Amino acid sequence: MKEPLILDTTLRDGEQTPGVSLSVEQKLMIAEALDNLGVDIIEAGTAIASEGDFNSIREISKRGLNAEICSFSRIKKEDVDAAADAGADSLFMVAPSSRIHIESKFKGKLGEEDVIKLSVEAIEYAKDRGLIVEFGGEDASRADLDFIKRLYHAAIDAGAVRLTYTDTVGVLVPEKAEEVLRVLSNEFDAPVAIHCHDDFGLATANTIYGIKGGALEFHTTVNGIGERAGNASLEEVVVALKVLYGVQTKIKIENIYNTSKLIEKLTRVAIPLNKPIVGENAFTHESGIHTSAIQRDSSTYEPITPEMVGRKRQLVLGKHAGGASVKAIMNELGYKATEEQMKEILLRIKDVGDKGKRVTDADVRTIIETVLQIKREKRVKLEDLSIVSGIKVTPTASVKLKINGNEKIEAAVGVGPVDAAINAIKKALTGFGDIKLVSYRVDAITGGTDALVDVVVQLKSGDKIVTARGARTDIIMASVEAVLEGLNMLI
Ligand code: MN
Hints:
CATH class of the largest domain: Alpha Beta
Number of strands: 16
Distance between the termini: 53 Å
Shape: elongated
Radius of gyration: 27 Å
Bound molecules: manganese (II) ion
CATH architecture of the largest domain: Alpha-Beta Barrel
Strand content: 15-25%
CATH superfamily of the largest domain: Aldolase class I
Number of domains: 3
């Protein structure tokens, strides 16, 4: 397999994810991150679609990035004009190619020969306007392959320089992907790309098999976002190609995680916990047998090191915890226990896990200290908290904390009452180290508005990250309790 090019369509197909809409500034940030990551072609949007998309492509094109900047286009002159006016380098131009698409798009009035004619005209026009054309049949995986060949020959003759085989509805299977890409790669001198969707969870496999068949380019989105079940995900394809097939791309894989988190944040599409490579659990271990083996040799239960993709390993305790993981945490906290005490600590940790709860660092510490009968004075205590919130007032919180015995009163505003309360606490703690809230998660344990709310936070100070929980019926108090628990561990 040769080193393939990557066209990343996070900003076009990815933005077509239901509920996602990015501003020009956000698209610029993502384009820069994709360029740093090493993507060859950035499909930055559809210039004709909206003013926002047009402006995004214009601003991204102005940046002078290394990547080729591409606009999606139909076989219409106005689409070509919009892309050219926006300053794009290239088009990913798509023509309906399956019977179902030709019939529905042209309402039965036009047929295959018309598609060829309109495609040729649009490609020639795009060449006149100075654009590089990558051409593909939409829904190609359900189209007649002989028609695809005729259409693509006409496209090449008209001036297209790359071709794409699209699996618009995600019905391709790996065997067919390899076979068709072999046929098309042999048929054409121009590079052929593969564009896959994940409706059956096969997007990564289909993309890789397409490359095996001879595809010299593939389309992806970061985190696999995209319409319906999404597109082939960049991180999965790139890392699988490198690790399992020994095929290199230009991607700097140590930048994958940061890019993925940026895109999660800006699109607000949460990465599933168990998503390969970038999911929170991808390098997290709970089971006791696994964690003790991993501490000796990480390759026992990890196919690649987390550092390879810019991440860190996490060991968490739960009902599968074993003696080794508890010992590791005890060492870290600087505690020593007898065999009997160790057994008791482990038992209590498993008990929290068995109740279906995530065992936080603060839980573990409380359990250890209870069993070892260590009395610890909390260094940060909440003495008072009041909140003002409503339709016409900015949410404001004032707190009275006792820090190492000294009283401190602070007030702060926020986007909501929880945010205001946490901001006030942070303000009161100024000077106690740079503490950051890494994550904040809320679960309602029962269904009603009187439900017990479980808040789990991750706090960071320097290299150290701790998790802590607050559980109350009042979401503000649960949040404050969780943050204070975490602070008491960090300070
Ligand atoms: Mn698509």
